[in-house]
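pls design
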């Protein structure tokens, strides 16, 4: 059991490194960030002239997030997804039957575990090729780290489309729409995006009734001590805190900055949200036991909440559920069932 637990912690630590890289935390400095970008800055779509007559989106040429022009002659029937949020999106678009490969990190929906894995984030190129995919999907942060493997796939004649890493909710929408185009599910993508927009608007409207004096100061931890990472401006997590009418304690920082316990405790937050309880045992108790945190309102009032990480840190359709989860934790009197 001990070795299994150690393996779980090591795997979670690796996922955290990849997650932070994807969110712009390459630097160890407190204010590390990346310039926000959107798919609209990178993506061009060229549809056939007779598309309306044929009633088909294919063939289609897409200029992806890394400037590659990718032509898909027909709707993909064998897709390999190298990013969990991309996989979730494909299934949300009712295109999951076409997925023949995924990574070890894919956990949702449950049926993805029955699909053959091509390894971890550093995927096995030969295993991908052996699946004979007609489309491989990933995002730009992954492409930066594992570009050599992706180039091998391109050289093998496999279309690879890189979507933009999502640093904002708007970019999440654009990514969903791009995946919809690539998989022949544009109409489904429009429905998913509209549903998300409506859910966000509903939460925001409800949160607008919260008086200014009751506005909560929230501290978020996406990685535990000693290297505590939180969320700052130009992230979709920061946007979700804004939507629920809460104040982000680290809101003056950019991206996903790193803090020490001593730096973080100075914010004296009303509420603490963590996302690492799935791999750190007794995570909430660990925060309560921090010596310097004993007088922090969130600790005194027992207002530390362990969120479902996948709903709040994976930039996909479930972010709409994530914002509701955050709202219920921060303002249970307003959003509680």
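designed seq:
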């Amino acid at each position: 059991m001990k070795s299994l637990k150690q393996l779980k912690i090591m795997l979670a630590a690796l996922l955290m490194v990849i997650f932070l890289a994807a969110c712009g935390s390459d630097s160890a400095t407190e204010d590390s960030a990346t310039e926000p970008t959107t798919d609209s800055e990178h993506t061009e779509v060229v549809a056939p002239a007779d598309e309306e007559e044929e009633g088909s989106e294919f063939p289609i040429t897409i200029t992806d997030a890394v400037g590659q022009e990718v032509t898909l002659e027909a709707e993909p029937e064998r897709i390999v997804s190298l990013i969990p949020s991309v996989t979730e999106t494909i299934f949300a678009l009712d295109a999951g039957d076409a997925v023949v490969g995924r990574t070890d990190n894919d956990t949702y929906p449950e049926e993805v575990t029955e699909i053959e894995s091509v390894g971890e984030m550093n995927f096995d190129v030969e295993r991908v090729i052996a699946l004979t995919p007609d489309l491989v999907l990933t995002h730009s942060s992954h492409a930066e780290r594992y570009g050599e493997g992706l180039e091998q796939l391109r050289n093998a004649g496999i279309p690879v489309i890189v979507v933009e890493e999502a640093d904002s909710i708007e970019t999440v929408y654009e990514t969903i729409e791009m995946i919809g185009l690539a998989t022949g599910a544009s109409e489904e993508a429009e429905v998913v995006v509209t549903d998300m927009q409506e859910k966000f608007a509903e939460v925001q409207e409800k949160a607008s009734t919260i008086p200014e004096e009751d506005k909560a100061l929230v501290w978020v931890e996406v990685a535990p001590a000693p290297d505590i990472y939180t969320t700052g401006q130009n992230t979709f997590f920061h946007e979700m805190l804004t939507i629920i009418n809460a104040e982000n304690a680290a809101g003056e920082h950019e991206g996903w900055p790193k803090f020490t316990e001593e730096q973080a405790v100075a914010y004296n937050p009303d509420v603490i949200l963590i996302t690492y309880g799935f791999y750190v045992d007794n995570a909430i108790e660990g925060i309560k036991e921090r010596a310097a945190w004993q007088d922090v309102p969130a600790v005194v009032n027992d207002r530390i909440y362990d969120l479902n990480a996948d709903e709040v840190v994976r930039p996909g359709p479930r972010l709409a559920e994530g914002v509701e989860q955050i709202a219920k934790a921060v303002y249970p009197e307003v959003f509680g069932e």
